[in-house]
Records
---
Amino acid sequence: MADTDDDTERAGAVPADATLRWRIGEVAVTRVAELVTLAPREMLLPDVTDQHLADNADWLGPYFSDGHIQLSFHTFVVVSQGVTIVVDTCLGDDPIRVMAGDPTFPDRLAAEIDGGLDAVDLVLCTHLHFDHVGWNTRVVDGVRVPTFPRARYLFGRRDVEHLATDDSHDVASDDVVPLIDAGLVDQIGSDHPLTDEVRTVPTPGHTPGHISVLIESGGGTAMITGDAVHSPIQFRHPEIAATTFDWDSAMSTATRRRIIDDHTDTDTVILGTHFAAPTAGRLRRHDDHVRFVPL
């Protein structure tokens, strides 16, 4: 089972940019937000209609505002069996990208890690889009260096191969290839153990080699979604896809249906990589459909 900190407020009352903590069995998980913003649904999930929002208004409150998606860019820090893992590194410090990151984020992240950024053992990117690799590196004294100096960086092999022919997010030159060239990267398969309690699982569609993270410890289970899901409304309507950004929206829809089939009415804690606070919840069948019920 997952436990929240005592000071975590009830669902819907948690500040959007709050640092949140959970325990999944013996595994500690911390969410550190870089940026929370309102995104036009037409940009990210163009098939969301006013009727969708009206029909689900009683439970979608923390995730939509005035028809816009409340979109969070955050990192999960996972500590398992003495291994500190950073899952996705958010937006970064490159000012020419689609969205500028928060330059204070590395320091804020370091403050949430025992031993700071030097203590990070593994950096896992669920996929190689700009908002998931941005702080893989940073500029220090005019030189771009790894943000996590002791870490091994884990990239999905299939997505590295795809990036060679399609770098529409302009990430290769700063945040991927220099790390590969420096020998800091392990290219992994889609089902790869990080510890005895944490492993990647294949969730393709958003990108060819997209992976999510499965935590199984002490009778507790959790899944970090990556961009297999962008908003909880996609559990109610898995056919709604991020068509602007998906590599294959039919495949991403099939992936969401599989997640729903595997985890509805179980104890699995779903940790949404772009879900605003309270971020964590479980899938529960409600009448003829599935809802995301926050912890």
---
Amino acid sequence: MRYRGCEINAAQVTQIRQMMAEQPGLSRWKLSRKLCEAWEWKQANGALRDMVCRGLLLALERAGAIELPPARRTVRNYLVERLRPAPVVADERPVTGPLSQLRAALEMQQVRRPPEEGLFHSLVEQLHYLGYRQPVGEHWE
């Protein structure tokens, strides 16, 4: 089986099964950490590749290769639970006139952290075909 660029063979699946059989009280989190330690599966910064390993374990379970212990807790996804931006009434009258006159009236403004940020999010939510999505990861400010 291939998972995220790694080839997982039958001996490794057997090793996972043995680890679970020898320590039946292991949580999914502890199992993934022990597996990372056993396979020396680390990131470039030395941290264990714990999240990737948990994804591998879930993929193996879905494929019917292993049976994981029941999940002990559910992690909340706050991005999914967040409130949508409040709707605002926007002036939708068409802007007309020569570009040379409009250019003088246009103003570009950063909307990160000022009071207008909420207005921006609301307008994107209402008017953009994809709606508003909370930015994730690195983005330019």
---
Amino acid sequence: MKNRASAPRVGLFGGTFNPIHLGHLRAAEEVREALALERVLFIPSRNPPHKHQDARDPIASAEQRLEWVEQSIAGHEDFRIDRAEIDREGPSFLVDTLTEIRDREKHERPVFIVGEDAFAEMGDWREPEALFALVDFAVMTRPPGGLEHLADRIPEIVRSSFEFIEGGRRACHKEAGTWIDLVTITALDISSSRIREACRAGRSIRYLVPEPVRLSIETSGCYGSGTAVRPRRMKSASR
């Protein structure tokens, strides 16, 4: 996929990251490469407005989740942390975050990276019309059976604001000039909810999250179990 912008663009990857995992990291890398992004800013949510604390399935503290993101992207020269939501009091509404970062990144419109499921739900988020006029969007989809046409999942409230081109894989806002790109990424079957479930059951989360994150999660017991099950060693067969 060719990058249409002449100036470098910045990707914005927001989320609860409860916890961040290898699927997040690989997705960010593939979108960065596909859209020729200069860098990707990871934006951990301090107080996600669409998620509520549940004693049976807790949201780790903002400080823990920020630390895990920092550990995960350490050493990647094109991945950075953005503290816009961590440092802001109150609910972490995306429209406030995008407004702040767009005003800061004056050289080019940022690109917000989002999965197709969350993309479809954005009509219920605060000020959806404003959201889609603020920045460009990269909507991630995974084969097989992934999204083929943006119109199939774009929120109804903003559908008429866009013109769909390139077989529905791109869309342009008729007034604001912002773009939506559909980006196919590798189908890694990893999710934060499954990682938390594995922790509660005492199962290993090795190779699902970066190793420093695994050690921190299992040591803290923040998801309900401080010790992962150790695999048994196989006895050598007699010869």
